[in-house]
Amino acid sequence: MDMPGRLLRLLSLLQSRREWSGRELADRLGVTERTVRRDVDRLRSLDYPVTGTTGTAGGYRLVSGTNLPPLQLDDDEAIAVALGLVGAAGGGVSGMADSSMSALAKLEQVMPARLRPQLAAVSSSAEAIPRPGVPQVSPGVLAVLARCCRNHEIVAFDYRGRARGATRRRVEPHQLLTLAWRWYLLAFDPGRDDWRIFRVDRISDVASALHRFTPRTLPAADAASYLVESFVSAQYRHSVHLTVQAPAATVSATFEGVVRGIVEPVDESSCVVRFSADTPAMLLTQVAAIAALGPFVVDHATPETAAFIGGVGARLTQAFVTQ
Amino acid sequence: MDMPGRLLRLLSLLQSRREWSGRELADRLGVTERTVRRDVDRLRSLDYPVTGTTGTAGGYRLVSGTNLPPLQLDDDEAIAVALGLVGAAGGGVSGMADSSMSALAKLEQVMPARLRPQLAAVSSSAEAIPRPGVPQVSPGVLAVLARCCRNHEIVAFDYRGRARGATRRRVEPHQLLTLAWRWYLLAFDPGRDDWRIFRVDRISDVASALHRFTPRTLPAADAASYLVESFVSAQYRHSVHLTVQAPAATVSATFEGVVRGIVEPVDESSCVVRFSADTPAMLLTQVAAIAALGPFVVDHATPETAAFIGGVGARLTQAFVTQ
DNA sequence: TCCCTTGCGGACAGATCTTGTCCGCAAGGC
DNA sequence: GCCTTGCGGACAAGATCTGTCCGCAAGGGA
After folding, report:
1. How many C-beta atoms surround the C-beta of residue A65 within 10 A?
2. Interface residue A215 vs chain B (CB under 8 A)
3. Which residues from B are below 8 Å from A255, CB to CB?
4. Which one, A18, B14, B225, B276, has least CB within 10 Å?
5. pTM here?
6. Chain A, 57-96: which have a CB under 8 Å from a chain B CB?
7. Which are the contacts of A322, defined by CB distance < 8 A and separation ≥ 6?
8. Which of B264, B148, B151 is nearest to B206 (CA)?
9. CB contact under 8 A, B321 and A308
10. 3-state helix, strand, coil in chain B (%, to 5)
11. Per-residue confidence at A211, pLDDT binned at 50, 70, 90?
12. Cα dist. B304→A41, A295, B282, B292, B308 in Å?
């Protein structure tokens, strides 16, 4: 890559992420850090406001609000567009299949000729299989929530809770998160004076209250880890605590990708696992997976849970042992 | 003015007016016409579509940019682009997080002004949480496979099977499919004279054999249903057949999102379910879910499966009933 | 307080690239 | 036919760029 191309690429890198370290940029661009510094200098001399901060958490960032030259997509970005739209067609957001495909077709038209075959190949030969049973969220709801997050506007919506009927909420939206095809809104609820996680598919009648709020600091490193921690430690109605005769690492590995559950080691060869869920049935899968690992003891379980899982166990035993 | 700065200036000049002659550009930039030609060439090599026309009314013009509204996406399509790229950042394809975000930032620039806030809102306030444990596939591999699918080119690659080590395959690729964050290649394997499904994350060293083939007709309605049917009906080592005292619809609903399993109604209130998997442990979750629904009878099970699930059942019963 | 990490910039040598000036060619309009 | 325009090869002088040194300043953590 020659120098002007590298400058354009540097600009696009700086634009795509808040902060980059010189080392990262040098790796991306395939040059030394010294050259990165020189390139940053060049951008500055071209009136692009690139700030650099020193220290351990230092790095470069492009302050927003400047008009950049029309940057072209590179190969990986074109592939990302195609894969993203193919994937978006697969589920999670209602009506996205058609929109994604038509957007892809239009994007293909404005792509540089070199990338067009790539895009066409992916869009014609890749297909997402929609997962049945994933709750669909409306793109309009997501759009409004996203706008309110960005503008720090109070947002109001009806929320169909797990048990109770729909209630009207007025919250300070913080971030939208997607995990395993589901969309979540992380927001601060002033009425309850606490952070809450809402499932976007249960949100309806969303509207901005047209009232700005000052963003609060999240009691976690970032929104993603807050969500994951909340899931892991959430206390629902029914819960089980088990002591398992297996190393904590083994048990944790069983639940890779499944977020609900806390595993704490007791000693080298045993650990304590805690689950909670709304219904005993939702606990069954995890408990069964534990039971498959080895012997375990129930430290605690709500009566309904114990009865339910015990009943399932009896049914399994009867069906398979007397076969 | 140095070369990179002049290139950016040239880009902005080309954006600002419909048509420029080489002479004008040379004057504006303070260089000779020969250098203008070279700069135009450089822009072209950077994928900027600059056209040049000869003759009296000749000149240079930039076909895309802010001149003509290049991307006439409607609201839903814009949201689809944003959501797709945010989602693509979340997993499945390695290195896509950065590419997706930078692509999104660049697309934002070429959007009509009306849509730009929408896109900016979604890209800044939505975030995908990567799922641990999802195998990563390389965008390059996907790109080659997609191209071979489209061009009907034989493709060769190393495949790490479930048990055996890597083997070199030469297949006729048919379609790429993504399901639950995993990518699959549906292809016809002439050596085995049958259709095969390959997991793309197990494919490496992929290369087109540069040899065209005539596409065969798939023994299914479409690729997606072929894949699902294959998963559902795949005969792995261990299998169970159950007759459940519950309507087929209820049982099917239990497995929403889980594809491995055939449900066939027997009558109004009962149905037959068949599962198969590589290990008895992989059958456990599904069988436990069935057991949670109601009474059932085991019609068939491999001995290991029966012993395994019976054992788990006994363990569950013992742990929860004697609590 | 010390130490590490990060950005910043000078100096220098060698390789690379750029530029201007030739030249001829092709294509379109008068 | 002639002019204008874009296109591109060749070449030499000169500028520029890069990598590798070096030391300095500033911020954050132990």
Report:
1. 6
2. no
3. none
4. A18
5. 0.83
6. 68-73, 75-81, 83-90, 92-93, 95-96
7. none
8. B148
9. no
10. 45, 25, 30
11. very high
12. 68, 18, 12, 22, 6
Identify the H or E element spanning A8: helix A3-16
- Higher-confidence residue of A46 and A164: namely A46
Please, are residues B234 and B199 in contact by the beta-carbon 8 Å criterion? no
* Nucleotides on chain D within 7 angstroms of protein Cβ: 3-10, 16-21, 25-29
The answer to whether strand D lies under 7 Å from the CB of residue B22 is: yes
What number is the average pLDDT over the span A79-102?
A: 86
Question: Do the Cβ atoms of A80 and B117 come within 8 Å?
Answer: no
CB atoms under 10 Å from CB of A162, counted, come to 10
Residue B67 has pLDDT above 60, yes or no: no
Euclidean distance between CA atoms B10 and A218, whole angstroms: 45
- Using CA atoms, how far residue B282 sits from A134, A285, B25, B288, in Å, is 22, 12, 68, 11
- pLDDT band of B260, cuts 50, 70, 90: low
Nucleotides of C under 7 A from a protein CB: 4-11, 17-22, 26-30
Residue B175, token pair as written in the block: 């379609």
Of A143, A179, A224, the CB nearest to B79: A143
Distance CA B288, CA A310 (A): 12
Neighbours of B225 (CB within 10 A): 13
Residue closest to D20 C1′ by Cα? A34
pLDDT in tens, A43-77: 988 888 899 898 888 889 888 767 788 788 888 88
pLDDT above 80 for A11: yes
